[in-house]
Amino acid sequence: MQRLLDDTPGAVLGEIDRGAVYADLRFGHAVPDDRPYVVINMVATVDGKVVIGGPGTTHLIGSRTDHFLMTRIEGQCDAVLFGATLMREDDPGYPFHDGARQQRRIARGVRPEPLWVGLTTRASFPRIPRMFEGGPTRTALFSGSGIANVDREALARVTSLTVSDTPEVSLPSMLHTLRLDHGVRVLCCLGGPAVNAAMLRAGVVDEVFCTVAPKIHAGRRGVTMFEGEPYPAEALAALDLAAIHAEESEVYLRYRVRRAT
Fold this sequence. Notes:
By secondary structure, this protein is α/β, with parallel strands linked by helices. The chain is 21% helix and 25% strand. Strands 2-1-10-11-9-3-8-4-5-6-7 form an 11-stranded mixed sheet.
């Protein structure tokens, strides 16, 4: 693998072992007092598509190295955030960690097992999402006020449930709760794109990791990393490039979100 740019102190450019990439992301150096440090991690085709088919097809975009780096990033975060569509369609199961993995996480200064967090407006799921097999100490769900009573009761038995007084969950409020009540210092957001956009617009995203896979999906319609209301042309959200790595034809980008002045 090639390290083409990296602003981490001491980083050496050129050929490096894959295991050295993102080995120490130093997230904990800049954690706010009132919310977690938030990073978004996504993979996209060259034409910007992050959805290429039905449920379970996202993993086909990136390579094994992309999957490895995704796990490496998550391994340095206390919690992982999923939007309702991702929970409903891909339905990932909670990744129980053995003792060795827990010790590695502790050594990195994060929770022994990650807190998996769901975000939804109505908690309308055809069945209880598999992520909640992790139970109330390993998972949390934040729902808007539209949740049905029967769903509220069922979900409260399997996860730490917080229901908002408003139809939409306040993202700053959710992050405040995660920071103060759940001890989450670093949060990795896996989307979907509507969640990514809402987090960015709320001003709570600190970094964006993006793998650009050497593939093209094409088509007039297609979901990109950030959906929702666009920014005006004269005031686009801006990023500062922090690192570039590449393996064969796949590129791994790390950006820090530039704060408005």
